[in-house]
Design brief:
The structure holds two protein chains of two kinds.
Chain A lengths: L17 H4 L24 H7 L9 E14 L2 E8 L1 H6 L6 E6 L8 E4 L2 E3 L3 E7 L3 H6 L4 E8 L3 E2 L1 H6 L4 E7 L7 H9 L3 E7 L14 E4 L6 H10 L2 E7 L2 H11 L7 E5 L15 E3 L5 E3 L12
Parallel strand pairs in A: 9-10, 9-12, 10-11, 12-13
Antiparallel strand pairs in A: 1-2, 1-7, 2-6, 3-4, 3-7, 5-6, 8-13, 14-15
Chain B lengths: L2 E5 L3 H12 L3 E6 L13 E2 L3 H12 L3 H8 L1 E8 L2 E7 L4 H11 L3 E4 L3 E7 L2 E7 L4 E3 L2 E4 L7 H7 L10 H4 L5 H4 L16 E2 L3 E3 L6 H10 L1 E5 L22 H4 E6 L3 E3 L6 H4 L10 E3 L9 E2 L18 E3 L10 H19 L12 H12 L15 H9 L7 H10 L12
Parallel strand pairs in B: 1-2, 1-10, 2-6, 10-18
Antiparallel strand pairs in B: 3-5, 4-5, 7-8, 8-9, 11-17, 12-15, 12-16, 13-14, 14-15
Helix pairs in contact in B: 1-11, 2-11, 2-14, 3-4
Classes of the chains: A alpha/beta, B alpha+beta.
Chain lengths: ~300, ~425
């Protein structure tokens, strides 16, 4: 029997999803076939939503068309795209952790590649940042019209800390392509009257691609300057740290925080291999330190359950 | 410091807090909503039938504080209604703040709007509990008084859906079984037809929504009995309710209202359009649960196996009280079991022999009797209350029922337990 986690889609128009019909809900014990309630509580009752929807899943995410507005080559193999797409979709993507599956128009659906939303503009445009790595990104790079499936939101683990933080100091550490998912998070931090310090380890990317007028930007080599960062955390009384980069970066930040104030909260980018985004394919399944499986396209967890 | 952590601030949790505090422990009481007393905020019936005896027994045992409040804030005393004598009805709109004040005056740390979501175990011992905000509270002994009602999905599956009762799960989150988190499987109560759980037995109407005459009579006498037109009598409802002491035919043939501040309607739920066809109820509306026309909360879905000292079997330092500890109905029963759980939690910390109340005392007998009965299937369909049904019959048969305070006092004295809950171990 699967374990119970909060679900990023609970309370949205996409819940209950197909997993409720197949008795594989991420959150609800009864929708996993158990006799009684024992949930992590999403603020609403998924079983109730399911009954109210005549015991059927809600409509799945749709495909939208997108058109390239601007393409900028930032460095070798690195591109920043501005894409115009459906207004409702853009509106729903204006939320930390948002991502879409995108492929070139005319391509088959196995070319869908998950892409973080760096930013949205005027309820009309999304900006994404990617590096040519494999077959999907290379194919995507040849297109100027796209099929976009979304919205998806679980691009950041530990998102509840971001919802709670107000009037505090936050630190964002990004390395390489990790920068692609910090834009919306920083906006939300600022909106809640937090001060943001942004540390960029250059990795693949040595320029800052986020709206940087209201944040303090530092560049450093994270692997070799941990003491400097720890000092900054202490001096600035950092309450929330967002690690945006690979799992190696997350682990290294997690290790570093053992020497910092234990009340500091850690948020990370979700680096699991997202494929369907609907909890069906299982490619994003990861194991917690206790060995429990969690589908990271849906499970609203924080990084520390893995260490 | 020796700390007792109590999870669930209903009558049982409040009673356990007081007895554990009086026994000398530091007490932390955690309540997930913003009010203590849980279903006690919509209950109100005290001292009816054998509850009179049990109340006086508790007072002589030293658990007097909460009964002083309910007595003081009774809107009506010594009233009769079908099947019930010498009842008191406390004012549900006044009791909770008084109890909160009392706990504050005893230096009991009350944490509201925090929900316990898990436990940290060391073998069979609970070391700490984890709250929904990820904070951790350590303790030496723990008491599970989380009740057995809801949450929403259970009321949906075993009842008629969330009826928006005083427990307010959608706002404050669901009940969680602490004993089950500690690895002990819950016992489940059944309806007489074998299905799980049972409906709460009464709903409350807004008194101002009733006719002037009904309101006046309620305020003056405390009880109003209105016959249900014959074609509307539904006897089948009686088997589904928790409170078997009110599952008498009079309760199907009449609308029985009690004045607890609200107009307490002694039936689990009653379709609003049918209710409004009855004279005096033309404008009736529900106060609790808000959807009392459709359903009510579902209870007895989570009980911990325990011994007669209220210790949960299978966990070294976990006690239980109230509905969590058996198929009990009522505030008096919750206070009786909660008080013993609180007292014994401190005895446990101080490695004293745990107290078992002898069966010559009704409070001791019901605790032991309910435990015996729960072992078989039929016992799981019964409810145990001093106020009626099988247990009150038993009280009468065993001469445990009396309203003579001197007899009750002597009973407690003879067992050597006079004011036992006042004894401090620390």
């Amino acid at each position: 029997m699967a374990n119970l986690f909060k679900c990023i889609d609970a309370g949205t128009k996409y819940c209950p999803c197909i997993l409720a019909e197949t008795m594989d809900c991420v959150s609800c014990s009864q929708l996993q076939g158990r006799e009684f309630c024992d949930c992590e509580w999403n603020g609403l009752c998924i079983l109730n939503e399911y009954y109210m929807n005549n015991k059927k899943a809600k409509k799945n995410r749709m495909n939208y068309k997108g058109v390239l507005v601007k393409k900028k080559k930032i460095a070798d193999k690195l591109y920043l795209l501005k894409i115009e797409t459906d207004k409702d979709l853009v509106q729903e993507l204006n939320r930390s952790g948002s991502y879409v599956f995108i492929r070139g128009e005319g391509e088959e659906s196995h070319f869908d590649v998950p892409m973080s939303i760096l930013d949205t503009e005027e309820n009309k445009y999304i900006r994404i940042l990617y590096k040519l790595r494999g077959c999907k990104t290379k194919t995507l790079n040849n297109s100027s019209e796209y099929i976009i499936r979304g919205p998806y939101w679980n691009g950041v683990l530990g998102i509840k800390y971001l919802k709670e933080i107000k009037n505090s100091n936050c630190l964002v550490i990004a390395k390489g392509m990790g920068q692609a998912s910090v834009g919306l998070v920083i906006k939300e931090m600022l909106r809640n009257n937090n001060k943001v310090i942004f540390i960029l380890d250059k990795g693949d990317l040595d320029k800052v691609y986020i709206d940087n007028k209201r944040i303090k930007i530092l560049k450093c080599d994270i692997d070799h300057e941990k003491e400097k960062i720890l000092k900054l955390i202490e001096e600035k009384n950092i309450k929330l740290l967002f690690s945006a980069g690979s799992d190696l970066l997350h682990e290294s930040v997690h290790e570093m925080l053992k020497y910092a104030n234990k009340d500091i909260k850690l948020m990370t980018t979700n680096n699991s291999k997202l494929c369907c985004g609907e909890g069906i394919c299982g490619s994003c399944t990861n194991r917690t330190k206790e060995g429990q499986r969690v589908k990271l396209c849906k499970g609203k967890v924080n990084q520390k359950i893995f260490y | 410091m020796d700390t007792v952590v109590i999870i669930g601030g209903g009558w049982a949790g409040c009673a356990a807090s007081i007895s554990a505090r009086k026994a000398g422990a530091k007490v932390v009481l955690i309540e997930r909503t913003d009010m203590l007393l849980g279903l006690g905020n919509v209950g109100g019936i005290m001292r009816n039938n054998g509850r009179f005896t049990a109340t006086e027994e508790n007072i002589y045992l030293g658990a007097n504080e909460l009964f002083e409040i309910t007595d003081k804030l009774s809107r009506h005393k010594n009233i009769e209604f079908p099947g019930h004598k010498h009842g008191s009805l406390y004012d549900v709109t006044k009791v909770e703040p008084e109890v909160k004040k009392l706990l504050d005056s005893l230096d009991i740390e009350v944490i509201t709007r925090k929900r316990v979501v898990d436990v940290i175990m060391d073998k069979n011992t609970i070391k700490s509990i984890i709250l929904d905000d990820e904070s951790i509270i350590d303790g030496d002994a723990f008491i599970d008084t989380t009740g057995s009602t809801g949450p929403m999905g259970n009321c949906l599956k075993y009842g008629n859906g969330c009826s928006m009762c005083i427990l307010r799960c959608p706002t404050f989150g669901p009940r969680i079984s602490i004993s089950q988190k500690a690895g002990v499987k819950d016992l489940i109560g059944k309806k007489s037809d074998g299905s799980c759980g049972a409906f709460s037995g009464s709903c409350k109407l807004n008194k101002d929504s009733l006719s002037k005459n009904i309101k006046k009579e309620l305020n003056e006498k405390g009880v109003v009995i209105v016959p249900v037109p014959i074609e509307r009598i539904d006897m089948s409802k009686l088997s589904k309710k928790v409170c078997q002491q009110y599952a008498l035919k009079e309760y199907a043939e009449n609308l029985i209202l009690l004045d607890t501040g609200h107009a307490k309607l002694m039936t689990s739920f009653y379709p609003l359009e049918d209710l409004r066809k009855i004279k005096g109820f033309e404008n009736a509306r529900y106060e609790d649960p808000y959807s009392g026309g459709v359903g009510n909360s579902v209870r007895y879905l989570s009980m911990a196996p325990r011994d007669n000292t209220m210790k949960v079997i299978g966990v070294d330092n976990l006690f239980c009280g109230g509905e969590k500890s058996g198929l009990f109905v009522g505030h008096t029963e919750a206070i009786s079991t909660g008080s013993l759980a609180g007292h014994n939690s401190v005895r446990f910390i101080k490695e004293n022999k745990l107290l078992e109340i002898p069966r010559s005392i009704a409070v001791g007998d019901i605790i032991a009797y309910a435990n015996e009965m729960i072992r078989d299937k039929e016992g799981l369909t019964k409810r145990y209350t001093f106020a009626g049904d099988n247990y009150f019959e038993r009280m009468k048969r065993l001469s445990l029922y009396t309203t003579d305070k001197e007899i009750i006092r002597k009973r407690i004295e003879d067992s050597g337990l006079l004011n036992i809950y006042d004894r401090s171990f620390i």
